[in-house]
Amino acid sequence: METKEIYGDLPRLETERLVLRRVTDRDADDMFAYGSDEDVARYVTWDTHRTLEDTKEFIAFIERQYENGDVAPWAVEYKENGRMIGTVDFVIWRPQHHLAELGYVLNKAYWGKGIMTEAAGELMRFGFEKMDLVRVQARCFAENTGSERVMEKLGMTYEGTQRKAMKVKGRHWDLKTYAILREEYDQGPRDSEESPIME
Question: What are the residues whose beta carbons fall under 8 Å from the beta carbon of 182, sequence distance 6 or more?
């Protein structure tokens, strides 16, 4: 399987509370609302959005990824109000190894409601069922206990900490790695509770 088979025409996914869909330029204001929040940006690899133009440039980059059939995020839309409240994606996909890595970010106003566990859980299901994945992993900065909690709620197993594995925003970060294998996922449904998350 090649990336274009998925990302050339990004599938629309749906859960009880959420729609996972393509990011569009209409999402700029909603994305800026969380992208400009220092608390949201603290544990992600990208810099805080300073202006709406920063957000529009990022969305333009995402749209080019779609056009090229390259890995790109799903927008997380909250059905109750139609707002785009974050993104979820496979930040890494290695089809030849049947491996993908989850990444996600969520508007702070929606932390602690199980939303990202719901979104990431749906993407994980799609990955195992439609992308022939054998392993789904996720990594977070060691200080990011909210993201770690999401990984645990998804049924992932902690595999270790890579010390000073990434230099971002002027410092070296330790990265915690979690993963779940297809056979573990197939054992049964995952818990859907959650605490605040970041990428």
Answer: 128, 133, 134, 135
**Cα–Cα separations (whole angstroms), residue 12 to 22, 23, 129:** 7, 11, 15
Which position has the token pair 């790695």? 177
Q: What would the two tokens of residue 71 be?
A: 């890995």
pLDDT of residue 5: 87
- Give yes or no for a contact between 29 and 52, defined as CB atoms under 8 angstroms apart: yes
What pLDDT is stored for residue 147 in this prediction?
Answer: 95
Q: Which residues pair with 78 in a beta bridge?
A: 18, 83
The C-alpha atoms of residue 103 and residue 44 are separated, in whole angstroms, by 9
Task: Give 37-61 pLDDT, tens digit per residue.
Answer: 999 999 999 999 999 999 999 999 9
Q: Model-level pTM greater than 0.85? A: yes
Average pLDDT, the chain: 93
Q: In the beta sheet, which residues pair with residue 54?
A: none
Burial 81-96 (b: 16+ CB within 10 A, else e): eebbbbbbbbbebeee
Give the pLDDT mean for 151-170.
96
CA 11 vs CA 21, 23, 123, 149, 191: distances in Å: 7, 12, 10, 27, 24
Residues 162 and 164: their CA atoms lie apart, in Å, by 6
Ramachandran category for residue 168: left, alpha or beta (phi over 0 → left; psi -120 to 50 → alpha): beta
Please give the helix or strand (H or E) that residue 159 lies within, else none: strand 157-168
